[in-house]
## 1
Amino acid sequence: MTVPPTAPGPPLLVRRAELDHHRAGPAHAGELSDVRTVGGVVTEISPDRLRPGPGEIVIDAAGGALLPGLHDHHIHLLSLAAEAASVPVGPPAVHDRAGLAEALRRAPESVGGWVRATGYHPAVAGELDRYALDALVPDRPVRLQYRTGSLWVLNSRALDRAGVHGGPRPDQPGIERDAAGHPTGRLWRMDDWLGTVVPPVGVELAAVGRTAAAAGLTGFTDATPGRSPAGTATLTAATATGALPQRLTLLRPEGGDDSRRPPPTDRVGWGPVKIMLDDTALPTPAGLAARIRAAHRAGHPVAVHCVTRIQLVVTLAALTDAGPVRDPAGPGSGRPAHHAGPDRIEHGAVVPPELYPALRDLGLVVVTQPNFIAERGDRYLADVHDEDPAALYPAAALLDAGIGLAGGTDAPFGRPDPWAAVAAAVERRTAGGRVLGPAERLAADQALDLFLGAADAPHRPRRIRVGAPGDLCLLRVPRAVALRAPSADQVAATVINGRIVHAADENEPG
Ligand SMILES: [Zn+2]
């Protein structure tokens, strides 16, 4: 008899685990609990040793911390999977033109002989166009993505294969053209269209799922703007087959047709509507308020991309006008079924203190990327002049101001390791060793909490309690010990829906 890969696991007993409530005070110091899951749900928590039932799987935690499974609240899963078929062409892998040429020449060919390069930064070899790429790789189709994710550059061979030629094409406004109407090779925010003209890269979602399980991740919120129905289908299928064992929340494409979307399952649900903003084509507050109202009228909160000061100012004005959707678990309100949570600000790279009261009063949750401080901090110091680099991605000040905060890695634009992000939130140390904004450092517990929230309440750390889903992350050591050097290496086992999906010391998970 075959068991569906997403069925709840068999009864599971985790013995002698350190639980979160042991932090509640000295009365609980050294106390360890046994935790049982049956049918994918936590059914029993006891300070006494529970007797294993017949056929029950038993894990001895030996004093290690048992956490709710981690959740990455902002990630791009299909892009992350495609990274496996890509060559990195930005720092730290590549620093100069010679390195870029070498990386592209050695790049693995994906389907159809295409080279897919990602992570480019102009510090490597300046702004690129088709001719710059032709000079490096004339004979193979190359597509190269800037690190920001908004710009692809294709060489001439690639443009030819993609059918992009001269002459005005008003239906493709993202295709940059020179004065004579010739495409420059630079394609702005054209991912969806590119997906229809280039051969699909091998989508390695199973590898993404495995790596994430080894880091204790039991859930993702995919934040891809304008995700295509095909992309949604790929993610949903990977979840149904167990290739991607994690629970999945999908931010909704703006203006999409809900009737054509697959219904939510116990593994896949819909989140807020993702609204992208671009400084070059910023809506008016009234225009944005109309879009937010449309989402709210359809019953959905919004998640607005805000990486600059002006984007946040316009967004707050629009939300004040439209009125926010608040956390339904807030004081005095019951949580309705299938609620997708409060309105969110994605990134919050720049949050001037004078805007804190508005953020708090609107009940917004900021989904931040502490890992960017570690990964990109040195570049911020070199490149960012119109803002204080030390004030980027604020964290401690937002919590102090009573603003909800959650974490996402934004992988593949950031590294997909939540533990590295926790360490970055605590240290705010760049690769070059500079501490960026020491006042914004979080305590280790606060940093871990960024990844313990529920998909629909990202700022509220879950607790292991009877009746909660059996989504668990067992550490080898007590929480305080693990947080001295946060690392995925501390994860001993990961459980989703009561099923062990990763066990560090076994070759075959149970
Ligand atoms: Zn993103």
## 2
Amino acid sequence: MISQRAQNVQPSATLKVTGRAKELKREGKSIVSLSAGEPDFKTPGYICKAAIEAINNGQHGYTMNPGTPELREAISAKLQRENSLNYDPSQIICSNGAKQSVGFALLATVDPGDEVIIPAPYWVSYPEMTRLAEGTPITVRTSFENNFRLTADQLEEAITPKTKVLILCSPSNPTGSCYSESDLKALAEVLRKYPDILVISDEIYEYIVFEEEHVSLINSAPDLKDRVILINGFSKGFAMTGWRLGYLAAHPDIVKAVSKIQSQETSAPSSISQAAGLAAYTNDLSEVHAMRDEFKKRRDYMVESLNAIDGVDCFTPGGAFYVFPDISAHLGKTTPDGNKLETSTDLCLYLLDEFGLAVVPGDAFGEPNGLRMSYAAGMKDLEEAMDRFRKGIGCLL
Ligand SMILES: Cc1ncc(COP(=O)(O)O)c(C=O)c1O
């Protein structure tokens, strides 16, 4: 009854922990969850107001498939103003979230059997979207030592005649790691040797960077622009996850192909969300920066607390709202009940069952020696979470 395509897709590996957390909560247990992939803030008021006005003004109909001309113009202006990237509005397609943009970009470019290089730890959807496009995900494990950045040598080694796409995500979910200009220049140097390889550059966490300015791949290698599919959206920086609004910018041929797919699968995103997105990109960013500054305080607290625990090693991520500590020193240890914790999933289930702490195992992201903690939670929850984590780790033998 079920297609091979659907059977090939793995259910989200994060569900094991989040499903169990919900079960325990229902049973009345106290659970602190650092598993969320979304800001805990509310969407800024001026954006909500624009959406309400759109409703009251009767903006209730379908919009053009790639999005309203006003929003695409605002995105084009934003890319020019903030990123020094020159995209005509016709090169932009708005979607129901960056997730849809990544999925349709893969459907538009990958043929059966094509290989897609995905640095690990990766966002869980990349390999599964690649499978849905009948491509083959080639995951390349990056290292804690290099703050999980793919190196030029690793890229070169992974490339085969079947390579079609490289997916880069900076700042990264799940590690918070950011590529610097020189990292990107080194990768570009390799890509220049293989003119048929496209790059999906997922920059959805662009506004949540702490010390350095965000660097777009294309800024580091303007000559690769026609081969790069730039992905961005409103979910993370503007705390708009539920509004479902993202976009891609690319070469006109790619845009045409994605537009065809979008027109048959979903059409444009909600007219109301597009009005909200227009307000987001045509007002000042002070509220966005205030959220970023709050995330930075939390990041500093998390990194310091984690590194104070024996056998836990956490680099300081440059962006997003995740930390991804190395917990390998505790794998293979035994719980007070005599259970051996072989994997990061075992460790996370132990923390959940015994200490009511929900964090996501690195196994879900292709990195067995780590785990992801989201700090999109208030300081009180973070303090309680770190207390539980410290106790849980401290009990292991
Ligand atoms: C790396 C990455 N890309 C894309 C998305 C999708 O974002 P959106 O809510 O715009 O679909 C997410 C959301 O978790 C993400 O972490």
